[in-house]
Amino acid sequence: MDKNTKQKFYMIAFGIVLFWGLSNIKLLWLLLGKIGSVTAPIWIGFLMAFVLHVPVCAFEKLLLSISEKLKWSIRRQILYTVSIFLSLVCIIALLGISVVLILPELSNSMTNIIAEVETQWPVWIKTLELYWPGDINIFSWVEELDMKQTIEQIIGSANSMVTVIAGTFSTFLSRTTTFLLSVIIAIYVLTEKKNLARQARKLLYAYFDKTISDKVYVIASLIQTTYSKFLSGQCVEAFILGTLMFVFFLLFKLPYAGLIGVLTGILSFIPYVGAFASCFIGAVLIFLSNPHKVLIAIIVYQCVQFVENQFIYPRVVGNSVGLSPLWTLIALIIGGNLFGIMGMIFFIPLTSVLCTLISKDANQRLKKE
Prior knowledge:
By secondary structure, the protein is mainly alpha-helical. It has twelve helices and no strands. The longest helix is centred in the N-terminal third of the chain and has 56 residues, at 76-131.
């Protein structure tokens, strides 16, 4: 079979598959969802490994420079294994610190809310009595209730609640198992990184033409570079912004400095939406505890955010993503609607990769013309 015949055969086969997929879009979507749920630990593990590769490489460079300065003859594989271990320890430590900072603040906020409700409860009762319609007698309404039916409803609600609790526990157990398996797979992927890369490149060049294989290799390298720059820059920027917010809230003696600093650092990975969400959550918590400090807190937050956006973010992250605000917002909307918060984060560098590839292809076409 010659090359032209193969191309025609592939085009016909692709057309048949595409027609079947469009004709059975619901069945295809259910099939893809089932495959995604079954293989969830695998692709989540690869995604974790892809994200963890950034701190692992940073630790590896640091350990390598230290060993060279001290003139230690340590194998590269040992340094890489230690880098994986240090990355996992750092992530666990960051999660632990976040929990330690957030839980006491949430506990204090709930205590303040309960105290505020206890203080305002008599005022609310008097207001209710003042505006309660005179022709509605709540006591007669209570007497007219069918107690047997009410008890049956309560029992039915209790049974459904037990079912919900059992389903929630089962879902939690399943997701915990998926998470642990994903972590194990991510560690194995990081450990076998070189072998997996060599095998993937071997299969790529074995089953596809050299031209296609070269393009795929270039695209994969571009994706890896773009995501590494984006994640490393965002991590540094999140740490700086969260620390600044924590320090300035302490200087102005505003409550929930630790909680708002941690939330700001975590949510700063989501452009636009993250800053608004952390500011809104902080304003609500401060309003519940100290209403007279809400305006000051919002002003301080916006000032720190403005300084960070104008002076720190361009220097730390720079043009690693290289997207204009319009394309960033478009990527944010599409990624959020498709995959939620993770889509918001990962669609920005993905859009940057697509724009880079389209720009290079357009430039090559214009040069040929």
